Amino acid sequence: MTTDQPEAVVFGERPLSIEQVVSLAEQHSPSQLQGDGAFRQRIAKGAQFLDSLLDKEGVIYGVTTGYGDSCVVAVPLEQVEALPRHLFTFHGCGLGKLLEPAATRAVLAARLQSLCQGVSGVRIELLERLQAFLAHDILPLIPEEGSVGASGDLTPLSYVAATLAGEREVLWRGQVRSAAEVHAELDWQPLTLRPKEALALMNGTAVMTGLACLAFSRADYLLQLATRITALNVVALQGNPEHFDERLFAAKPHPGQMRVAAWLRQDLAIDAPTAPLHRLQDRYSLRCAPHVLGVLADSLSWLRQFIEIELNSANDNPIIDAEAERVLHGGHFYGGHIAFAMDSLKNLVANVADLLDRQLALLVDSRYNHGLPSNLSGAPTATAMLNHGFKAVQIGTSAWTAEALKNGMPASLFSRSTECHNQDKVSMGTIAARDALRSLELCEQVAAATLLAANQGVWLREREAEARPLPAPLANMRAQLAEDFPPVIEDRALEAELRLCLAQIRSRHWRLYA
Fold first, then answer.
1. 284: annotated active-site residue
2. Which of the 8 DSSP states describes residue 272?
3. I need a surface site. Which of 191, 254, 313, 367 has the fewest CB within 10 A?
4. pLDDT digits (tens, 9 = 90+) for 100-111
5. Residues 335-371: tens digit of each pLDDT
6. Domains located in the chain, CATH noted
């Protein structure tokens, strides 16, 4: 009997998708390096061309000159071999939390795919070692903070360069180890980085791009989950499903908005008979949900374009065109597209948090929830006065939403002139990407809270005398939720259940829409 093996992510000339990077980062797919002779020869040609220039004493930024503003400082040929180690050494000053393992894998993937474009002047051996790090899950310990997102993610990527050279520390087999020890245990020789190789590793947008891939994937799932939560809340609040009528959305045909409305029609079986309406028009957090979520849905296509072009680009400097025998000095390390994408994403996500927060506020308030108990408490009359149900959960949700909204300030507007005014306009793309992941974390917390509250609200409706059967998609969702989240009857601390729900969101536990 044969078992299906996951398809490998192949690094090389063919473009990668966000989904491939995420699958690799989450260890669902193995990795391979394109191995045909033509590809290997193309990579080798760049390094050989650089060596020929050194023989001719050519002037190449970062190879025979200092770095950044020090580009006017010539480096004698006898010192050229020492320059790469100095680059990753003096950039070893990152601070803050360490990147999570999935994020580190995404960073390694983004850097490797960029170098595979064949215009960075590195050896095939460097690409093979990067791919081996992924294959063996050798993860450099990379501090999150210290990049301004132009001249590349220099400081965080210095930890990749250093560990390839056998310095600093890595996470391997669940333990923090010195890179030198891991190389020795695997019988590998640490790389002595050649001229341009440290610069090629560090002078790019791999950290912000890897993080952006993860952020995109989480936002895509969050869009679907927020739609399903809205459908549950329409049931719990006895809302009007006609707000999502297909003819209505044909009059304002934003494609993503129409898709969200179609998902809601599917969940709510809109053509089925409905209960008498409490209001002709529901409050905006229900009625306008497709219009809020649709902005995210319609933005995903251009967000994908920005991220995937960056992922599959050569984004270091200088570019080594071995075919034309040219060294092209430019600024492809500038992360402006990722910065704008991530600044936009965190605003899109904050709006989703705000939408769900407003839905939860309606659910717990007996003035607006059309007959549900105050705070969604399921307590019997005898102990109702003691029980407060989801009261504190709603307060926490308000706090998480407020933080997500506060986090919406565009990082890309805070460019700082650095490095002796050489880097005088920078992208802040890595900060924007980290911000986006934080906003997603907060919004997922809001989603977890609102999902559990919606589940409670629907359970309370099902106990009513005139309760109608749920449409199949919602009935299936309720059945899955019931396995882990029993109704709240007497008050209980809900932290553990919220954390479980968060873990399920992060793992895309529920299959939602095709």
1. no
2. S
3. 367
4. 999 999 999 999
5. 999 999 999 999 999 999 999 999 999 999 999 999 9
6. 9-204 (1.10.275.10), 212-318+330-506 (1.20.200.10)
